[in-house]
Amino acid sequence: MGNPIRIKYLYHSGFSVETDKNLLIFDYYRGTAESLVKESPKNIFIFSSHSHPDHFNPVILDWQKDRPDIQYILSNDISVQQKNSNINLLAPYEKLEIGNLKIKAYNSTDIGVSFLVQDEGIQIFHAGDLNWWYWIDTPEEMMKAEKNFKDEVQKIKGETIDIAFFPVDPRLEQNYSAGAEYFIQELTPKIFVPMHFTDSPEILEKFENRMTEGPSKILKLTQKGQESIL
Questions:
Q1: Which of 131, 198, 141, 194 is nearest to 163 (CA)?
Q2: pLDDT at residue 196 in the model
Q3: How does pLDDT run across 60-107, given as a tens digit for each residue?
Q4: Domains with residue ranges and CATH for the chain
Q5: For residues 98 and 118, what is the distance between their CA atoms, to the nearest angstrom?
Q6: CA 129 to chain centre
Q7: What integer pLDDT is reported at residue 214 of this predicted model?
Q8: Which long-range contacts link 129-133 to residues 24+ away (Cβ below 8 Å)?
Q9: What's the DSSP call for residue 33?
Q10: What is the DSSP string of 176-219?
Q11: What is the dihedral of CA 166, 91, 19, 58, to 10 degrees?
Q12: Are 159 and 123 in contact (CB under 8 A)?
């Protein structure tokens, strides 16, 4: 993938991705990111996929006090009082070119968007809450959830994905990996990073063992602040 890429797990669905020129932060909720922002010599882009408090923490808007050059790319369901030119709101299927990034928003199966970001030839996908939310529900609701998810994955199909951040949620019990498995089967990202497991990192071991024969490398980051260099 060319220049080294540093991925840091912040918490839940929050990650930082450091490329040659840029620092990208996705869905910050908790963890240590402010010091990253303050100290980085790179261009800084902050993404929030939707307004749920475990994906959008308003504190991110305070970071521009130290870094007025920061750029925000937020789902358009997030209510922001500030109308600054560095705050970009995206609806599903909208595109944005900013700095050397090419960004496309896809839909979610909850609220908000998912993000496909091209940075220096690397394609990064952050799912937000796009997932097959396979709750044990009425047959009609279960069929609807499956159709909505699979239809959206088919819209993404054809994109090359180098790194994908995607939910593996133990609250779904035996269905915890259904969405991830379908996503990998259809889109074959080179590297798949599980997220949205909150305080149940043991689910990643189970998932990694399940996917040993799959086409994607599973990158298992379980501890806050844990890093990997690709």
A1: 194
A2: 97
A3: 999 999 999 999 999 999 999 888 999 999 999 999 999 999 999 999
A4: 6-229 (3.60.15.10)
A5: 11
A6: 8
A7: 95
A8: 129/49, 129/50, 129/52, 129/55, 129/167, 129/196, 130/106, 130/166, 130/167, 131/166, 131/167, 131/169, 131/179, 131/180, 131/196, 132/175, 132/178, 132/179, 132/182, 133/109, 133/172, 133/179
A9: -
A10: TTHHHHHHHHHH--SEEEEE--TT-THHHHHHHHHTTTSSSEE-
A11: -90
A12: yes
Handedness of CA 77, 119, 163, 103 (dihedral sign): positive
How far is 8 from 20, CA to CA, in rounded Å?
15
Note whether 73 and 45 are within 8 A (CB).
Answer: yes
What's the mean pLDDT in 118-124?
95
Structure tokens at 20: 């040659």
Whether 129 contacts 111, CB under 8 Å: yes
Q: What angle do the packed helices 139-156 and 178-187 form, to 10 degrees? A: 30
Q: State how far the Cα of 222 lies from the Cα of 208, in Å rounded to an integer.
A: 12
* Cβ contact 182:167 at 8 Å: no
Q: With contact defined as beta carbons under 8 Å apart, do 103 and 90 qualify?
A: yes
**Interstrand relation of 122-126 and 163-167 (parallel, antiparallel or unpaired):** parallel
**Residue 127 above 90 pLDDT?**
yes
* C-alpha 179 chain-centroid distance: 14
Backbone conformation region of residue 112, classed left if phi is above 0, alpha if psi is from -120 to 50, else beta? left
